[in-house]
Design brief:
mainly beta, twelve-stranded antiparallel β-sheet, 12 strands
Length: 197
């Protein structure tokens, strides 16, 4: 489970990497440097949930989305690849439960991320500004650049929100992508989506 907002977690992770050996060894986990003033992330008690009212029945169900990158901020070849995809539609699905669980999935590459969202007005949901956690499967995502280098990205902060109107759902999704091998090549991507059932 990861916490939102991603910026706090990113700062803690970056500080840990600067003070400890961060490598590709997937069996070890980074530790905070000794004497660090960065507090350790807290984990909610088992079964704890973010208080929220149930989501509107108009939102509940599975949605077929057309998702587009609208902005990509970062440096390096992966950021350039994101920027080259701006405006190009990709097929995604969004499953919304009345309890507030929201899952966005890419059928093409297996990425699937789940959130606990809060109601946003009568016909909307959001995780923006809402404390909570998200989980993803399908990470890390591999990117091959034109120069032949391969990069592996994991998300370290995400938010999503949307509203339904006239039987159509529209919204946005922000993801902070972190390059596991080079922390100078992070990408902040903003996506917009719309679709129907």
């Amino acid at each position: 489970m990861r916490t939102r907002p991603g910026v706090v977690l990113a700062a803690a992770f970056a500080a840990a990497c600067l003070g400890a050996a961060c490598g590709d060894d997937s069996t070890s986990s980074p530790s905070a440097p000794s004497g660090s003033s960065i507090p350790a992330p807290t984990t909610p008690a088992p079964g704890a949930t973010t208080p929220t009212r149930r989501l509107s029945a108009d939102l509940v169900g599975e949605w077929n989305l057309s998702l587009r990158v609208t902005e990509a901020v970062g440096t390096g070849c992966v950021a350039e690849a994101f920027q080259a995809r701006i405006g190009q539609p990709e097929a995604y699905t969004l499953l919304i439960r009345d309890t507030g669980q929201v899952t966005i999935s890419s059928p093409s590459d297996g990425l699937s991320c789940s959130f606990t969202a809060a109601a946003d007005g009568d016909n909307g949901f959001t995780t923006y500004g809402v404390p909570g956690f998200y989980t993803c499967v399908g990470e890390p995502r591999a990117y091959a650049c034109v120069d032949g280098t391969r990069h592996y990205y994991i998300s370290f902060g995400q938010d999503i929100g949307g509203k339904v109107s006239g039987g159509r759902l529209a919204g946005s999704w922000t993801v902070f992508w972190f390059d596991r091998s080079n922390d100078a090549l992070n990408v902040e991507a903003t996506y917009e989506f719309s679709g129907g059932r």
